[in-house]
Amino acid sequence: GLTMRLHSGDLFWDETRKEADYQELAGHTDTGVLVVGGGMSGAMIANELVHAGHQVTVVDANVPGLASSDGNTRIVQYCSDMSLHKMIGKWGERHAVDFYRFSLDVTVTHRWQSVFGESNDGLPFIGQDKDDPDLYFAFGFGGNGTCYCAMASVMMRDFLKGTPHPLSYTTAYPRAKKAKR
To answer: What is the 3-state secondary structure (H, E, C) of the chain?
Structure first.
């Protein structure tokens, strides 16, 4: 079978980090919004808030995009959710069959692991801290950051506008207890 080395190759994050010049936070900084964490979620939230007119500062304990976002977003098989029939129609039988054959005949020789939080109901926690109205949070994506960080960025924008998103009750912390039947 084929061997796929998941830790090597010309990957997006490695190329973009080479020329990056990250400023070190030294002392007090005035900002409208402080985003803690420079991975995919923090970057998407910061981007949404900047476009909404907020002054945003992003801080990260390490190199932005290096932790979970590096492993989650560096290798994506964007075609594997497409049926073989649709793929044949789009790229031809040879390419479609090769893609599926390669996907089935892979030996994973290296794996990565990341620690992430997950709620009991599988939904993230996105909202405003009840004890500190200037503190907002987005965590517990349970490995689904690609989907949930887009939702979190829009919800954060709405919270800061003073108009909580209509679905914000689904991501509140703590969750409202389910009614007994």
So the answer is: CEEECCCCCCCHHHHHHHCCCCCCCCCCCCCCEEEECCCHHHHHHHHHHHHCCCCEEEECCCCCCCCHHHHHHCCCCCCCCCCHHHHHHHHCHHHHHHHHHHHHCEEECCCCCCCCCECCCCCCEEEECCCCCCCEEEECECCCHHHHHHHHHHHHHHHHHCCCCCCHHHHCCCCCCCCCC
